[in-house]
Structures are given as structure tokens and as C-alpha cells.
Amino acid sequence: MQRKLTFDVAVVGGGAAGVGAAVGAAQTGARTILIDRNPYFGGAATHSSVLTYCGFFTQGEPPEQIVGGVGQNVLNHLARLGMYEGPRRTARTGTVIVLLDPEVTKLALDRCVTEAGVEPLLHAQVIGAETSGGRISAIQCVDHAGMFTIEASAFVDASGEGDLASLSGGEVIFGNAEGHLQSATLMIRIGGVAADAHAHPLQVEQAVLKGKADGIEGLTKELGTIVRMPGGNQDVLAILCDEEVNGLEAGSMTKAELSGRRQAWAYLEAFKRYLPGFESAYLVQTGPQIGIRETRHIVGEYTLTGDDVLQARRQADAIARGGWPVELHPEPGKPNVWHEIKDKSFYDIPLRSLKVKGVGNLWAAGRIIDCDPLAFASARVMGTAFATGQAAGVAAALHGQQGASDYQSVRSELLRQEAIL
Ligand SMILES: Cc1cc2nc3c(=O)[nH]c(=O)nc-3n(C[C@H](O)[C@H](O)[C@H](O)COP(=O)(O)OP(=O)(O)OC[C@H]3O[C@@H](n4cnc5c(N)ncnc54)[C@H](O)[C@@H]3O)c2cc1C
């Protein structure tokens, strides 16, 4: 007989958005399961070495914290583990970030999820949805033992790829209106770098240009960031190996992973030859998975626009704040394009941008919420994903408990949970 589990709320995907959603739902009193195909939570942070939380703070001076609630719980857990060094400005762009260590982040998220009473389920992939009358009644999952079913009253799609929205017949779009995607990047972690080596972006650019002139094959992007890992670790992370990839398709992903690894070894060679302090450098790790910025977005009840973001617009049904500048990665090898939010302030994200059109009991969170391309380039970051996740989880839990979730009750529950609105 097929295995069957029953919960009030089921959250698909355990990245920043999914952790926010599951803890938010559990704190609303819902019996909640958090499902991820990976062996740990964290999504891009732990599985693609995206080791900086952006979006927790505005970019002004001093930076203002704009994400609390579950996001603050995570920062508290990181701090207890001795790994939260507070907000920090990057050398190249002056943006405000929180540096992470991958293993500490895994443990902090395990603690955050289990202390909230969420049922964690790793190594399970969601592959189907049972629907009737425009609602999901259950989702199908697979592990090595076979297929199983999870029933719930309400669901959150925090898969990053809009899997559940798509599987349940919700409206989704791929990339921007023309199907163009922000480029993907394979992170590379490099060890053996001298403690006093400072790889300023301009030095990195010179090293890559020299490498290209000397015929090192596989180098693409010239301007990129190299950051030192926090917590006394001397390894550095290089964010340079861009790829154009359809993150939904295994064939396209395979080509990108292989090509990204070729690039990683080429960059290592260029750094060893031309960057002072990198002479004995070695490759500690790539990925593990190439970082996918964009695939599907949901079609919600409101499309957050670039104008909303850049004008720091407030919304009546605000359930989260975004403060990361618009950061576009137009295509592999091309520099990022930045646009500042008015007064380096923040904008509101409305609950309507999280509600999946056509599926009554499904909310979306994180990088798949309904945004135009400019708004997406800001709202996708992980600090903001904790906040949209918490709101989606609260909305789903209230919907399960009351049969509806209006924005006033979602906002008051979020405020009770110490979210910043
Ligand atoms: C190269 C790169 C650099 C970036 N730099 C930064 C940065 O410095 N700071 C920052 O804050 N943001 C950064 N971002 C953006 C940020 O990482 C993402 O937008 C963010 O992780 C979105 O969070 P999420 O929870 O929506 O999705 P994800 O982090 O992608 O998590 C989705 C989770 O869902 C799981 N999942 C997916 N489908 C299924 C399924 N069917 N069944 C079960 N599990 C499933 C996945 O395994 C994954 O764990 C970067 C992104 C990339 C790619």
C-alpha cells in the first residue's frame, strides 16, 4: 500500500523561502511538513555556495534592518554558533550583506526548523499534485522506496522553480516575457590563498585579461567578486563562472555543470599565475550545484514592478520589505547592472504577489513570486525570501484554519511573529 502522510500545511522546497514558510506556518499553529530533495535545508546557500544573505538590511547609512521574524531566528542561531558577524559592506559595490559558512548554516537551519515543531523531510522530491475544484488535495513525492502521498489543507511552493504551481495547473511564466533568463553561476571555493592576499575586483579583472591574452581556455567574465569566507576560514569564494542554462531541464543543466567546471579550473590557473598570494591556490569545491537565478515565476494577483521597487513604494497589503538594489545578470560574461532603490530605502511586497492564480490553496514564496524582470532582480535575494516565505506560510496556515486568509489577518499574525512590516 502506498505511504500517505497528512498535515495542515505542506511546504515544497527548503531554501530560505521554504524555511521561512514552514516556521511561519508552524508558529501559526499548523502541523507543517517541509520537503526538500537535498540532504539539507538552505537551498542556494548550502547547495550552490551562495554564502551571503542579502536583503536583511537597507543600503543606507546606517543600514536599517528590514527582515525580522523567522529571518531573525536564523540570524540568532547563526550568532549562537559564533558565525553571525553582523551586516557588512562589500568592497566593490558597497552593498550590505551577511556572510555565511555552509556547515554552520545547515545546522542553524536544522535548529530553526525543528525548534518550531516543523516536520522535516529531506531526500524527497515532489513530482505531482492531485487537484479538484481548483484546489490541491495532495502532492506526490518520490524517494528510493517509491512514491508516496502528502495530504494537506494548504500548500506553499518554495521550490525556486515553481514546480508545485506548475504541477497543480497554476499559471506560471518562464523567465521574462520573452523567456530570457538571468544567467546562472557556478561558485568556486579556493584554498591555499595567502592570509594577506587581497583580490580587488580590478586585480581580478587584470588577471583574467592576462589569462585570456596568454591563451588560458575557458575564461569568460572579467569583472566578478572574490570574497574571503567568514570565521577565520582562509578560503575564498569566486563568483565568476557564468552559464546560460535552462534550470528545468536535466540535459541543459548537465552541459552547464560540465562547462562551469571547465571554467573553474581555468580561473584557478589564471589566479595562480597572476594574482599575488594565489601562487599555491587549489580548488576546494565547485557548486555543489550550479546556482540557478531564474526559471519559472508564478502569475499572482499582482505583478510587483521595477517602478514599485525603485520608487520604494508602500502597499496596503504589505507582508514583507525588500531593500536589495536591482541587480541584473543579463548574460554570461557580461557585468552585472545595478539600479538603486530611492533614498537607499525599502519597498513593500504585497500578499497579492504570493497568491498563485487558479489554485485556491497555494501560495508562492522566494524567487518565484509574481515580479516583472526588474523587481525580480531585487526581490529574489535570500533575506527577502525568508520574509516572503514567512508570509506565505502564515497565509497558508490561516487559510487551512479559517478557510480564507485576508491580508489584515496575515499582517497581524506576522506582526505577532515579530516580522518587520
Ligand atoms: C549564483 C547566484 C548568486 C546569488 N547571490 C546571492 C547573494 O549573494 N545573496 C542572496 O541573498 N541571494 C543571492 N542569490 C539569489 C538567491 O540565492 C535565490 O534567489 C534564493 O536562494 C531564493 O530562495 P528560494 O528559497 O526561493 O529558492 P532556493 O534557494 O533555490 O531553494 C529552493 C529549494 O527547493 C528545493 N526543491 C526544488 N524543487 C523541489 C521539488 N520538486 N521537490 C523537493 N524539493 C525541491 C531545492 O532543492 C532547494 O533546496 C544568488 C543566486 C545565484 C544563483
TrEMBL record:
SUPFAM superfamilies: FAD/NAD(P)-binding domain. It comes from the Bacteria. GO terms for molecular function: 4 iron, 4 sulfur cluster binding; metal ion binding; oxidoreductase activity. Gene3D superfamilies: FAD/NAD(P)-binding domain. Pfam families: FAD_oxidored. InterPro entries: FAD/NAD-bd_sf (IPR036188), HdrA-like (IPR039650). Keywords: 4Fe-4S, Iron, Iron-sulfur, Metal-binding, Oxidoreductase. The keyword Iron applies. The keyword Aminoacyl-tRNA synthetase does not apply. This is FAD dependent oxidoreductase. It comes from Brevibacillus borstelensis AK1.
